[in-house]
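Lab meeting, item 3. Inverse folding demo.
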């Protein structure tokens, strides 16, 4: 588990190419520490101070892959063995509907009450948890976002202001982490290949591995030509590439796509 801390919140407006921007930015990370830092900067720009990302299918896990909560809080969480009993963790293993922690902890078991009280003691009054299917097809992953010292009503307003980009952020973290840092993101015995590939990456990968015009790419992927062109345009812009070949080369170099 890698731990880091980031400054207070700013704002990030939604824009159509933000998904591709996430892939391009995260793929430039040269190691897990840089990757974590890039995620943290994005989370901060989305108006949150802390995040945790965890693969739910890793049976040996004792906590999240990445977390930015205070060291002491994480230490208590691990020492008390809260991870395997946490109600939010149990929920995220079986569900993909995002929800607020304050909505889930209505009926609490004694251990859930202790987890809730631990969060409160460190001024984390709510979390927004986004579970979704891992791109390699093995169970779920979850991104949890929080803002220290902010009450639930204010926190939930912040979430509502950027919901359009949060799912794209989750998918980007999982995809880039799986492709570039499988030792950290993929559990023992799991596939290291992404089975679910984001559309902008699929378009670029199909171009890279097949000598075909764009209409043929669109037909192969079951997309409209307009959607294919838009996905290609946004990923090229995110990669600062003027040509298709330049975008393909950059994507291969940074590990976004594999050339076969």
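The presenter then showed the designed sequence:
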């Amino acid at each position: 588990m890698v731990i880091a801390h980031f400054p207070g919140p700013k704002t990030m407006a939604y824009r159509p190419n933000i998904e591709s921007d996430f892939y391009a930015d995260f793929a430039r990370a040269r190691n897990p520490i840089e990757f974590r830092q890039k995620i943290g900067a994005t989370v901060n720009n989305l108006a949150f101070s802390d995040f945790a990302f965890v693969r739910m299918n890793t049976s040996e896990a004792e906590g999240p892959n990445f977390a930015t909560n205070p060291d002491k809080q994480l230490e208590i969480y691990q020492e008390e063995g809260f991870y395997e009993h946490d109600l939010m963790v149990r929920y995220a293993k079986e569900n993909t509907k995002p929800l607020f922690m304050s909505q889930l902890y209505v009926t609490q078991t004694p251990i859930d009450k202790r987890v809730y009280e631990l969060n409160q003691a460190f001024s984390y009054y709510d979390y927004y948890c986004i579970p979704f299917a891992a791109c390699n097809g093995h169970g779920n992953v979850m991104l949890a976002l929080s803002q220290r010292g902010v009450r639930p009503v204010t926190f939930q307003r912040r979430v509502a202001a950027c919901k359009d980009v949060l799912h794209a952020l989750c998918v980007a973290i999982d995809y880039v982490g799986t492709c570039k840092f499988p030792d950290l993101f993929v559990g023992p015995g799991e596939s290291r290949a992404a089975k679910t590939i984001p559309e902008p990456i699929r378009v670029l990968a199909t171009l890279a591995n097949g000598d075909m015009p764009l209409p043929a790419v669109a037909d192969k992927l079951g997309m409209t030509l307009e959607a294919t062109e838009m996905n290609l345009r946004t990923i090229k812009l995110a990669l600062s590439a003027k040509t298709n070949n330049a975008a393909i080369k950059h994507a291969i170099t940074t590990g976004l796509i594999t050339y076969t």
